[in-house]
Design brief:
Elements: H1 5-17, H2 19-32, H3 44-51, H4 58-63, E1 68-73, H5 88-98, E2 102-108, H6 114-117, H7 126-141, E3 148-152, H8 158-167, E4 174-177, H9 188-199, H10 205-215, H11 227-237, H12 253-268, H13 279-282, H14 285-298, H15 304-314, H16 321-330, H17 345-350, H18 353-363, H19 379-382, E5 385-389, E6 392-396, E7 421-426, E8 429-434, E9 444-452, H20 455-463, E10 471-475, H21 480-483, H22 492-500, E11 505-509, E12 521-527, E13 544-548, E14 553-556, H23 560-565, H24 586-591, H25 604-608, H26 611-617
Parallel strand pairs: 1-2, 1-3, 3-4, 9-10, 10-11, 11-12
Antiparallel strand pairs: 5-6, 7-8, 8-12, 9-13, 13-14
Length: 620
């Protein structure tokens, strides 16, 4: 099957737009490549420090006779998704020794849980934690002791941060090693119903806690299709996982076998062998386009409208929301996984999951199959499904067709002719909307604005019975410069309850919603943000707003003369800058890029030295 014309056009556009930046990046990576282990160039004191605690691996590290894997881990035992990784380093070291190499834990990165910090002050550190993780990854790999890297991480900002950091060491091969989802718990529809009843005062706190605890109940990734599981999909379609690794449960022989296989494969693809596969060559414009298509086809997390831009930029590639929108409109929706449907990722995987989706998209010309996947093949092999034959790991073809068409479908009969994410643009700026979870009749709205300066202000208005009729809830001052761009998922049950009782409502914000963006129309990531003189700061209570997710428009229906002369309201942010560690992140708030440039703090100085590239990358 030939490449879809939209995929080909967007890929070529990205390559042309990024030519200078990508060339500079590849030149740096080529200069960093070594034909022998970099540690051979360390001084005697340097290398002695590097292997002092390595026990039986000392001789190998001293002589450079075998490859050495650097493990960068996001393990902690508070996050259910990362708790299974506690014993991975021991397993990886054993596998590396058996394969004639060695492995060392290069470092750990922070891993916070958005599920714990939702609605709390700590959520204002969440997005910035991605860039802290990237810097921590770079510090971990800075010792020049390694020939390959295994990144152990799963959740929201963690995988993007690990990849951004690893791309600064893109001359090394890098494989991502996930942990897999927890078993299915309370069905997502029932959990959502309890949340809404609690918002309406019809369920007690104990009722709500019982429901949440039945949903999030054991080691493993949360089972809804939010940012964490969208991360795993991205690693598959970009070729950074061993085939089919994403949704194998933790604590199983198959999961351990895949971890061992990742260690063995990492040693095969170093510069010491004949199948050198450096990260810089795996992550190119084709892999990034695959990521955007995969996100659209599965109704993935809105957070990746930020993270993908930042990850691409780390590889010297410039993408924007027009690219994402154009690809999404050419990509059919092939999955219904909560919040886009009742099923969870375990049901998705059992129905054929990513294997079916990847094969269908390749056959339709919507994915680039010819990327340098870490497992040694191309994307056709990525669709293969792992299984154990006795003690041996092998891969087989995915099902010829979906095993449950309520969860996964083929291109010939998709859930929707277009993908899950759209870009909005108008006199209010630019934004992202996830339409895959929103019923067709709710994808547009024309209603007066209700203005709130925080999500708590909206919730207080609801509790005081002040939210009547149709309205667009404008929650402003939530962008990256204002307060770190927290997720506002705390609003989901309340807005859903209002919609269910017959009101037409929508959310308009310069904050994030969540990887679990739900059934209420939400125009999010608005840029420019209110705190940077964005149009949201011009809105007044009662202004008529029109949002049309299918047409891709969002506008304040205010006379043009009045709109252009109207001043920006001041955005109060000082209270969000202290407490819970927020005072330590002032520098990041001051230098963070706009949302469409990834809300990133890492490339500001570099971009300022390259005016042409920086100018090309600015949108909105």
């Amino acid at each position: 099957m030939s490449l879809h014309p939209t995929v080909e056009r967007v890929t070529n556009r990205i390559a042309e737009r990024s030519k200078r930046l990508r060339g500079d990046y590849l030149a740096r990576m080529d200069a960093a490549s070594k034909h022998g282990p970099a540690r051979r160039e360390l001084s005697c004191g340097n290398i002695a420090h590097g292997f002092a605690a390595s026990g039986t691996d000392k001789h190998m590290l001293r002589t450079g006779s075998g490859g050495n894997i650097g493990i960068v881990t996001a393990y902690n035992d508070m996050l259910s998704a990362h708790q299974p990784m506690e014993h991975y380093p021991s397993l990886i070291r054993m596998a590396a020794r058996n394969a004639g190499g060695s492995a060392q834990v290069a470092g750990g990165v922070p891993a916070m849980c958005d599920g714990v910090t939702q609605g709390r002050a700590g959520m204002e550190l969440s997005l910035f934690s991605r860039d802290v993780i990237a810097m921590s990854t770079a510090i971990s790999l800075s010792h020049e002791m390694f020939d390959a890297v295994l990144c152990l991480g799963v959740c929201d900002k963690i995988v993007p941060g690990l990849l951004i950091g690893a791309l600064s060491f893109g001359h090394l091969p890098v494989i991502f090693v996930p942990a897999g989802p927890m078993p299915s718990g309370l069905p997502n529809k029932q959990k959502a119903e309890v949340r809404q009843r609690h918002a309406l005062g019809q369920a007690s706190r104990d009722d709500l806690l019982d429901a949440e605890a039945a949903s999030y109940h054991s080691p493993g990734t949360c089972t809804f299709y939010g940012t964490a599981n969208s991360n795993q999909m991205l690693m598959e379609v970009m070729g950074l996982h061993m085939q089919g690794s994403a949704f194998i449960p933790p604590g199983t022989p198959l999961r351990d076998a895949l971890t061992v296989a990742a260690a063995e494969q990492a040693l095969r693809i170093t510069a010491l062998g004949s199948d050198y596969r450096p990260l810089a060559r795996t992550i190119d414009e084709k892999a990034i386009v695959n990521a955007m298509v995969g996100l659209a086809a599965t109704g993935g997390s809105t957070n990746h409208a930020l993270h993908l831009v930042a990850m691409a930029r780390a590889a010297g590639l410039l993408i924007d929301w027009d690219d994402l929108d154009e690809l999404s409109r050419a990509t059919p929706l092939l999955a219904r996984v909560y919040p886009n449907g009742p099923a969870d990722v375990n049901h998705f995987h059992a129905a054929g999951g990513l294997g079916v989706v990847i094969r269908e998209l390749i056959d339709a010309g919507l994915l680039h199959p010819d990327i340098a996947c870490v497992h040694g093949g191309d994307l056709h092999q990525q669709a293969m499904q792992p299984e154990l034959d006795g003690m041996s790991l092998r891969w087989s073809e995915p099902p010829l067709q979906s095993l449950d068409t309520d969860v996964v479908r083929g291109v010939a009969a998709p859930f929707d002719s277009e993908g899950g994410l759209h870009r909005l643009a108008g006199n209010l700026g630019r934004a992202v909307v996830k339409i895959s979870a929103v019923a067709t009749e709710f994808r547009s709205i024309e209603a007066p604005a209700r203005i709130f300066e925080s999500q708590d202000a909206l919730l207080d208005a609801f509790k005081s019975d002040k939210l009547h009729g149709d309205f667009v809830a404008v929650v402003r001052g939530q962008g990256p410069r204002a307060n770190g761009m927290p997720e506002l998922h705390k609003l989901t049950p309340t807005l859903a309850a209002l919609q269910d009782r017959g009101q037409r409502v929508a959310l308009l914000t310069d904050g994030r919603m969540s990887g679990a963006s739900g059934k209420v129309l939400a125009a999010i990531h608005v840029t420019p943000e209110a705190a940077a003189a964005g149009a949201l700061a011009k809105l007044c209570e009662g202004d008529l707003i029109r949002i049309d997710a299918e047409a891709g428009t969002m506008d304040a229906l205010v006379d043009a003369g009045e709109w252009n002369s109207r001043p920006h309201a001041p955005i109060a942010v000082a209270a969000n800058h202290v407490g819970h560690g927020r005072e330590l992140f002032g520098m990041l708030r001051r230098q963070v890029s706009p949302a469409e440039q990834g809300a990133c703090t890492l490339f500001v100085e570099e971009d300022s030295l390259d005016e042409g590239t920086a100018e090309e990358s600015v949108r909105g």
